[in-house]
Description:
The chain is of the alpha+beta class and 432 residues long. 34% of the residues lie in helices and 20% in strands. The strands form 3 sheets. It has an 8-stranded antiparallel β-sheet with strand order 1-4-5-6-8-7-3-2. Strands 10-9-11-15-14 form a 5-stranded mixed β-sheet. A two-stranded antiparallel ribbon has the order 12-13. Helix 1 (15-34) crosses helix 7 (302-318) and helix 3 (89-97) crosses helix 7 (302-318). The radius of gyration is 22 Å and the shape is globular. Bound molecules: adenosine-5'-triphosphate and calcium ion (2 copies). One calcium ion is lined by residues 257, 285-286, 371.
Amino acid sequence: KVLVGTKVDENHANFTTAYNMLTGIRVSVSRTNAKLDRPLTDADFETKQKSTFDITGNELVPSAKYDFKFKDYAPWVFRHLRALFRLDPADYLMSLTGKYILSELGSPGKSGSFFYFSRDYKYIIKTIHHGEHKFLRKILKDYYNHVTDNPNTLLSQFYGLHRVKTPYGRKIHFVVMNNLFPPHRDIHTTFDLKGSSVGRDYKEEDLAKNPRATLKDLNWLRRKRHLELGLEKKHLFVQQLERDVRLMQKLGIMDYSLLIGIHDLRKGNEENLREKTLQVFNPGGDTTGDEPSQVLMRTPSKLESARKAKELRQMIKSERPVPVGETFNKMPDILEQTHTRGLFYSDDGGIRATHEDNQPAEEIYYLGVIDCLTHYGIVKKFEHFWKGLSNDRTQISARPPHEYGERFLSFMNGITMSPEEAERDARDREAA
Ligand code: ATP
Ligand code: CA
Ligand code: CA
């Protein structure tokens, strides 16, 4: 199966869905952000806000190209989360809906989720299963408290949880989240690590035809890779990861992974930045042959972006419904820094590799914990049982959340060690 990221324009099969998603986001986010800010209440975590769109519209909901229903979940909570993650409301709307075009990295992996990138590559829309949706709502308060208390959290940043439904159509649940990878730098190597070995190998011989595939645990080990963070950052990384994992263990989450994108400063960017072809990957999760795909990005002028952003800001202020279906010609500058919150996103959107002597190394890591909405439910129990029949039970990836977290942490702790350190560590453990 060859899977390529495609621009979702009017001719694309999923254009209507994408249009409805973006229209819903645009209207509901600007509506929530138009109000005076206030502290959250318990009820905010339960709120569902329904809007019905049609071609005529009314004073609350502007007219749209298609008939559909949109549900915005916990809009105030996500407004606060976006503020916490330092997103500017107008920029957020601009990035997602400035142009009604996304690129779809669409093909379902094992999970069947679809991925869309905003045109400026800052945001990812991921369709999720009803179970994941219900689960996120259930844990929203824990998540909110955790990210509030942990400014350096490595967990996926959720910016919105929504649902669209067309007449006679399916209900499509989706989240908006951060793209860990930057718009302005090539990612030369990508790893998706879980700390498990079963099924965690990308066939090295396939790399020739697919040089930027997402590699896995065994590829990392085979290459004798080492996450070089220097002493301080390494300590903070391990500590933060542990806090994040403790939360997931408590909430019964598993199957998450640490996604690492490596930009090699010696290689730099292959393309001219002003008219750049971005290399992106079919996500397809753990199952499919991640094919690289190309999405063409154009960089608009700063002035144009600023003007559009101002317009949106004014719309938000005036509480007047944002016109729907209007397309903005220009996008915000993709070179503009995403000031994502936290230590691990502070060096050009990532974290600079650092030698043990604290000298900077020639790489930037873009990393975070992704796919963290899988609750250890009945499905996983079955998977555990079946896989357990044929594999070493300690190595299968579907294990109860506590063990999953422990194995994950010990693997991630291991990869931050230099070979010498790892040897020392092994000796110490043997001695103990
Ligand atoms: P599965 O459940 O089969 O693992 P999934 O559909 O749940 O798949 P994820 O594991 O969330 O998908 O993501 C699959 C791939 O998509 C990742 O390995 C990564 O390449 C890319 N991806 C996912 N989330 C992000 C993100 N926030 N930033 C950048 N890339 C991402
Ligand atoms: Ca995954
Ligand atoms: Ca998944």
